[in-house]
Specification:
Blueprint (H helix, E strand, L loop, with lengths): L2 H22 L4 H14 L19 E3 L11 H9 L3 E6 L8 E4 L6 E3 L5 E3 L10 E4 L3 E2 L5 E2 L5 H10 L8 E5 L20 E3 L4 E3 L2
Parallel strand pairs: 1-2, 1-6, 6-9, 9-10
Antiparallel strand pairs: 2-3, 4-5, 7-8, 10-11
Length: 208
């Protein structure tokens, strides 16, 4: 069995599913629905699920967003709402192949520049900060919180680094996706890191 080829086929299928979901969202409502569901689930004093011990983000929490590329679900409406609620935003920057991501401060209106893979990122002069929560783009997710990414491993390495930091609360990793991107089960291996939750246009969920 050619595992690499199988994963490539799975990624190709997931890309089509995501692109179809974006195309079906003709009025662009999914981004606002995700923003509303995220705020309801993660605002201070709220709980994500009846048995969750998560008591909501602090208003001044540092949240890592992302600048959407291709058919990735647009989190910009959510980032705007987070800033209005007092959160500090950072965006990911690829430092080098094989390295964890770096996160630089950004707020709406700040200039951006193209980085690796054409993703827009803050300028090199923007301060670096450590996020308490990461909004994570993905190709697919499953019911147990496993994520199918693009294959370069940036978010897995980043979560490994952040979750191993001593003396700090581990950050939450929340996938952002269309509901159609859920698959029954995804392959995973040593070095893969699960999501803590996922927010789609239909629901906000926490994985135990």
């Amino acid at each position: 069995m050619d595992e690499a080829a199988d994963k490539q086929r799975l990624r190709a299928a997931a890309r089509k599913i995501r692109a179809d979901a974006q195309a079906a969202d003709r009025d662009g409502l999914a981004a606002d629905q995700v923003a509303a569901r995220f705020i309801a689930a993660f605002s201070r004093g709220s709980r994500l699920g009846p048995d969750s011990d998560h008591a909501g983000l602090r208003p001044d929490a540092v949240v890592a967003g992302y600048w959407p590329l291709g058919s990735e679900l647009d989190v910009r409406p959510l980032m705007i709402r987070l800033v209005a609620a007092g959160a500090a935003l950072v965006l990911p920057v690829v430092r080098a192949a094989g390295q964890p991501l770096e996160f630089r401060r950004w707020q709406p209106g700040d200039p951006l520049q193209p980085g690796e893979y054409g993703v827009m990122q803050p300028l090199s002069t923007a301060p670096v900060a450590i996020p308490a929560l990461l909004l994570v783009p993905l190709l697919a997710f499953d019911k147990d919180g496993w994520r199918l990414g693009y294959g370069a491993g940036y978010y897995d390495r980043t979560l490994a680094e952040l979750r191993d930091r001593q003396g700090t609360e581990p950050p939450l990793a929340i996938g952002i996706a269309y509901a159609a991107q859920e698959m029954p089960a995804l392959p995973h291996h040593a070095g893969d890191h699960k999501l803590d939750g996922v927010v789609t246009e239909q629901a906000a969920r926490r994985f135990i």
